[in-house]
Structures are given as structure tokens and as C-alpha cells.
Amino acid sequence: MTDATTTTTGTDAAKLLRRHETMAVIRRTEKAAHDLFMSGLVKGTTHLAAGQEAVAVGARGALRDGDYAFATYRGHHHAIAWGATAEECLAELMSKATGSCKGKGGSMHLTKAASGMLGSYAIVGAHLPMAVGAAWSARLRATDQVAVAFFGDGATNIGAFHESLNLAAVWKLPVLFVCENNLYMEYTPIGTVTAAANPAADRAPSYGIPAELVDGNDVVAVEDAVARAAERARAGDGPTVLEARTYRHYGHSRTDPASYRPEGELERWLERDPLTVSANQLRALGTSDDDIRAAEESAAATVEAAVDAAKAAPGADLAEAFTDVWADGGAEWRT
Amino acid sequence: MTTYRESVAEGIAREMRRDDTVVCLGEDIGAAGGVFKTTVGLFDEFGPERVWDTPISEQAIVGAAMGAAMTGMRPVAEIMFSDFLACCWDYLANEIPKVRYMTGGQVTVPLVVRTANGGGLGFGAQHSQSVENWALTVPGLKIAAPSTPADVVGLMATAIRSDDPVVFFEHKGLFASKGAPAPDGHVVPFGQAALLREGTDVTIVGLASTVPLALTAADRLAEQGVQADVVDLRTLLPLDVSSVLRSVERTSRLVVVEENPYQGGWGATVVSVVAEEGFALLDAPMRRVAGANVPLPFADALEDQVIPTVDKVVDTVKALVDY
Ligand SMILES: Cc1ncc(C[n+]2csc(CCOP(=O)(O)OP(=O)(O)O)c2C)c(N)n1
Ligand SMILES: [Mg+2]
């Protein structure tokens, strides 16, 4: 296991400013989702990723068009990083016809298959084998695509995690396992239920998989680490485990006030807010405060327009309840 | 003549020859040819890039098949014994059948999960259950369960070419059975039951192992002057209820023979449709000859107590005809 060192090599300011703006779009979308929930326009539940934006945006930045991503119920940031618009995401949360899944997915299942983001899955760990399969498929079709699975610290204790690491290692598949270690599985500190200090990275060596710990609030560090892992994968050297330390700003889900957090913990992490980190990196690269502010304002305007459009959109088409079970579009079960 | 067992490999091989995206994975399916020898010859013909031995990782087998299916392949995954579907049930219950729907049609999952199902070989409680009813509880899965060698090939062709996920139940008790080989290009569409014998007194509906059982029972009944229609459903989903209703229209009596347990068995779905839509056609109550609501015992004599037998079918039909 190697400790990643943050390097801005190869990251020019313009590129980083784009990452910063995407992270700002995600942050604003999460805030909008929260507010819309409070005003009764979003039902069910949401698992917001505010605070974890850098993992999704850094990873996407390091990958190519056509690479595959599989996410969890906490997946708004991955969907947006893979090109879903704030509007189609918020419309989906608001049960609108214009939602990315036509109202049949909701917050936990945002998907942007057209750009390789093949779903958000709400059974913990279930999508890791799928990412392994997508990587296997890339190899069988002789493309140089890679697949990445994003998952939480809690997912490292489910069998599918271990089955996936083993299979990916023995078949030497081009897959990246990216753990977003946000310190909690639901309401329980991960350390109290896990026999490894670094739940993903410490397990990887037993499967012969290289692992890296990375600062999950530093988009540049994530991008560099994912780029290294993707290069190994494309070269035929097999999977990598990345464990990104990060923190969610909201509670686990909509109903969780997160009162189990020790005093001062949130505040300490807010000082290392991924948007603050990237703004500082931009300044160090010579980007002006005006340019940074302009990017953030552009993000805010995008999400404001998205909220308005989603609110104005028609509700889910009732006929959609009976479509998309089968590939022919229908739901017939008898002849 | 060929065997049901050889027809499994034959059916897969025919599809692998016509479509490079068809790949197989499972435990011991490669050079070893599978524990039931149902994949013999595939590794030799297609090699290790098409036929993959896996670790004992049922979730990874089916989950990886799903990921590959979503990205341009047509995987055929083997789960050695159908009882082991429980180890990867999340994929059959929550992932594979739901992903197309919950993404609003953004993805398709053209895969086949093949598995050796059912009793009759004395493998005991954890290797003998008929679990086709498990799959029937899940909207979003297609289900095939052939009863003859030719149907194995013909339904396998449809299963592998299907853009929808298919659970393909191969019955352990039928592997050694023989029948006419499938002609070239043989394809059996899903949702088309086969009327295997015509009679006027009773309709007997079977699936997989209970089809030969129903045919034997029909022979015995004929000697006693009772003429039975025997319908092989071939697939549980789509479910060919039209063929069942058409037959009951002529016979006015229905007996369903199913190896899965009575509790939650597929026969309940068949009789409920007939009750709702064909009640006026009936001259007697419908009957289900099903597995008993107990785990499968080991000893042959005990196993016979709890799964359908020819005697049970004959007795049930006779009681019904006298009704
Ligand atoms: C198999 C399964 N068990 C339990 C749950 C309920 N559950 C949802 S999220 C969660 C915590 C997951 O924690 P982690 O993997 O760290 O991800 P995070 O929510 O922190 O992003 C649990 C227990 C579930 N969805 N699936
Ligand atoms: Mg967590």
C-alpha cells in the first residue's frame, strides 16, 4: 500500500476550474434536494453526498468517455459527474415525467447509461460484482474500457465485496474499487464494526490487489490516484482498491439528524470542504477569486434553473407504471 | 436418440457458434464439463475466453454476468444446484429483474442463469428442492423448464437470444432421459405450451419432470378408460394460460402436477387464473398434486412420500373423474 501524495502535475488551472464548477453543481443540487424535501416536493428518502463531491468528480476526470461507473443509493454525485443534468436528477426526485428514470427510479437509483453510468444500487455491495462483470466484458470485447465501483466503508463487510475482489484479481480485470470512507455505516462508526483500520485498503493485499489511501476531499489527489489505477487496469495489470477518506455533511438519510457525531467533528471536516480545498488549489495555480466566484455562480444558476424546470415539468406519465419490465418495452407475463 | 444432459451442451454450443458474445461461466464448467456433465465439449470447442471456471462465489458469478450483460455480452451463468440460488438471491430478486424498470429502460440484461433443479436423485434436503416457484415470485424474470432433449435445445436458443433475463431450470431427474434430437435451427418460443396427448376427460398440466410423470399416468388412466389431455407448460413466464383454458374447455377438469412445494407453488397461479377466467368451464374442483410442505428427505422411500408420483396423479385424477 502506498500513500498518495497530492500533486498538481498535469492539472492545469482551467481543468481544475471545471472540476470545481461540477462539484459546485453537485453541492447546489444536494442543497436543492434537501430544501425540496423539506417543502414536501421530494418524497421517500434521499442520501445526500454533499461533502463527498471530490471522489466522483476526481474519478470521472481521470477516466475516459465510455468507461463504466456503478454507484450506490448515495449516488447523486456520480450521476452528475457522469453527465446527468441537475434538472433530470431533481425531476426524478420530484417524481416528474422528465426525471432520468421517468419516475421509476428515484433518488436511490439515478442512472445515466448513455454515458456509462450504469446505475445506483440500494442493496449494499450488490453492484461490485456488476462492475467486475463490466470489466470482464470490456476484456472479452477487447476494448480498453475500465469499470469503477463506488461504495461506502460499510459495504466492505458484505460478501459481495470479497467475492468481487477475489474474482477481479484472479481474472486480472480492469476494474477500480473506490471506497468512499465517510467514517459511518448508517449511524454506526465504521471502526466499531470492522476488524480493519482501513476497511477497504487493508483487505486488498490479501487478494493480491494494490491499494492506495487517498484524501477524498482533494479532487486533484483523487484524480491522480484514479489515473494511476486506470493506467494499470488498461495495461492489463488488473484491479486496484482506492480508499478515499471523506465525510458527508448531512446525516445518513433524510430522517437522520446525525446526533451521534462527536462534537466538533463536522466543523473540522467543513474546514476541509472539498470546494474549499479546490478553491485554494486554484488560487495557488494563479486563478483569480473572480474566476472562482464566476464558476460558482454559474453552478448556482444552473441548479436554480434546474429546480424551476423540474417544478414546472409534468408528473410521471401513469402509463409508465407498465413499461420497461421487458426489453420490448412492455410488462406482459402471460400468453 | 440423445439425452437431456447432452442437449444442454448442444443447445449452448449452437448459440455460441452463431454469436460471439455468448460466454459461459460457472464452477467446474470448463475442462471438467460441469458436475452434471452438462457443459462437456464447450471448453474444447470454444476455449478459455468463452468458457470460464469461477471460484465458489455465487454472487460474483451472477453479478458479473449481469454487469457483462449490461455491456454487450450474452452470458450464460451456471449455478450448480438450484438450491444455491439462495446464495445469490439478491441478484435474482432485486438486481437483474429490477434494473431495467428502475432505470426507466436505460439498460437491458440479456443473460441466462442455468441451474440443476429438483429431486429424484437422493441428494437430500439442500441439493434436491424444486425451486422454480422462487423465480415465479419475482416480476422481471423469464422462466424456462424443459421436459425433453429437443425442448432443452429449442428453449435454450430462445433463452440465450432473449434480451430479457431468463432462469433456465434443468431437471436433475431428467438428465439421463432420452428423446429425439433437436433438428437444426430448432427454436422453441417462450409462452407456448405443448399439448402432448389429447383426451376428453381431464387436463393434466405439468412442467419439466412432472411431464413424463403425467404422460405415464395418462397411459395408466387410458387403460382404465379415462382419457387425459397432457399439457407441458415449458415456460412459467410467460405463462401460457390460454392453452390451459382451451384444454379445460374440452375436458372440464384440471389437475396440475408440480414438484415445487404446495405452499407457494406455481400450480396455485395456474389454478387461480382458471378460477378467475374459466370457472364456468369446470365440472369438478381443480386439484394440485404438488411437493409436500416439508424439506426434501434423503431416503428414496421418504422422498417418494413428498414429491409427485404416478400413483398420486392417477389417484387424484380418478377421484376427480368420479366427482
Ligand atoms: C444489504 C443491505 N443491508 C442493509 C441496508 C441498509 N443500509 C442502507 S445504507 C447502509 C449503510 C451503508 O454504509 P456505507 O457502505 O458506509 O455507505 P454510506 O451510506 O456511508 O455512503 C445500510 C446499513 C441495505 N440497503 N442493504
Ligand atoms: Mg459510510
UniProtKB/TrEMBL annotation, chain A:
UniProt cross-references to Gene3D superfamilies, sorted A to Z: 3.40.50.970
Statement: the UniProt record of this protein carries the keyword Oxidoreductase: yes
Cofactor(s), names only, from the UniProt record: thiamine diphosphate
BP terms from Gene Ontology: pyruvate decarboxylation to acetyl-CoA
Key words of the record: Oxidoreductase, Thiamine pyrophosphate
GO molecular function, a single term: magnesium ion binding
Domain Dehydrogenase E1 component: 22-315
Record-linked PANTHER family: PYRUVATE DEHYDROGENASE E1 COMPONENT SUBUNIT ALPHA, PYRUVATE DEHYDROGENASE E1 COMPONENT, ALPHA SUBUNIT BACTERIAL AND ORGANELLAR
Protein name as annotated: Thiamine pyrophosphate-dependent dehydrogenase E1 component subunit alpha
Origin organism lineage: Bacteria, Bacillati, Actinomycetota, Actinomycetes, Jiangellales
